[in-house]
Amino acid sequence: MELAQKMFLLAAEEMNFTKAAKRAFVTQQCLSEHISKLEKQLHTKLFLRGRHLQLTESGKAMVSTLRQIQHLEESLGHRIQEIEAGEIGEIRLGISTSRARLLLPRFLETFHGTYPQVHISITLGDTVQHIQLMKTQQLDLVLGLDAPSDPFLEEKLIGKEKLMVVGTLSFFRQYHLGTFSPENWKTGNTISLQEFKPFPLIGNREHSTLLELVQSWLRENHLDCPQPISISDISTQIQLCRLGHTATFCNDVLAYPLIREVQKDQEDPLLAFYIAGETHTMRSSILRLKAQVRPRYLEDFTNKLLEYMKKIQNG
């Protein structure tokens, strides 16, 4: 607000120019001149000057408006202080659909308890797509897999993830080439896919880091598995596998919680096996641009997310 407006508000509060002048640490004449100047600018009278000072209708409207402006200015000042302190803003995160659904809710709830005024915007998709969005300043962070080397990116390693094949016990027994199927199969065992007939797989419809790895591995091992269903959501893939007609490949970090989530039939349980001979591990990491100004909330979010993901990966 301008000085004359502040003088007017003091006079309206005190309804006495002498008292208002004392509060403003100016002379009564100085205060009167400021108010007269304001009245000339607005082409109206703000006070009825007599034995007792009274506000005109214009003066009452002026008081109401200036108090709103005063509140907005105070709110703006407080908001700027929060921004400068790194307590308010936006975080734009790129992550896959399944990881967002399985891994983020609890973390975001905890983070919002600390930074309630930080808005978090989630973009779902694949790592390569997200990196391009980050380079065009559309994302701040990417939680991704096997990110390609890039001189402009800083990579905070979470850990290594392994490939697993997921299906029901009856499904694996059906395609097993041995005269009998082991009765003690359980999630976390290692099996050789050479001991199985080619079996139907559910795979991603769109290009992804995982799809590229699976296709490469199948080619290298001369496995010609039909793919009757393609859908780019690992959660739905696991749900379909539970029906006992197909299998799918999945990262171990996601396989365990997904199986627990959809497991209903203990007589024909869903199992997830590591694969003999599969030595490639996928790097899970948090990616961000090197030349990036980071407010405190973004730096804190990055460090807390890194710690949270490491705990999940280490079981």
Please report the first level of CATH classification, the CATH class of the largest domain: Alpha Beta
| Overall mean pLDDT | 86
What is the count of distinct domains?
A: 3
Largest sheet: 6 strands, mixed
Task: Give, in order, the helices and strands.
Answer: HHHEEHEHEHEEEHEEHEHEHEEH
Q: What is the fold-level CATH name, i.e. the topology of the largest domain?
A: D-Maltodextrin-Binding Protein, domain 2
What does this structure look like?
By secondary structure, this protein is α/β, with parallel strands linked by helices. The protein has three domains: 3-84, Orthogonal Bundle (Arc Repressor Mutant, subunit A), CATH 1.10.10.10; 89-161 and 282-313, D-Maltodextrin-Binding Protein, domain 2 (3-Layer(aba) Sandwich); 163-275, Periplasmic binding protein-like II (D-Maltodextrin-Binding Protein, domain 2, 3-Layer(aba) Sandwich). Helix content is 46%, strand content 20%. The chain has helices at residues 3-14, 17-24, 28-42, 57-84, 97-114, 127-135, 169-175, 209-220, 234-241, 252-262, 296-313; strands spanning 47-48, 54-55, 89-95, 118-124, 141-145, 153-161, 163-168, 190-191, 201-203, 229-230, 247-251, 270-275, 282-289. It has a six-stranded mixed beta sheet. Strands 4-3-5-13-6 form a five-stranded mixed beta sheet, with helices on both faces. It has a two-stranded antiparallel sheet with strand order 1-2. Helix 5 links the parallel strand 3 (89-95) and strand 4. Helix 1 (3-14) crosses helix 2 and helix 2 crosses helix 3 (28-42). The radius of gyration is 33 Å and the shape is rod-shaped. The mean pLDDT is 86.
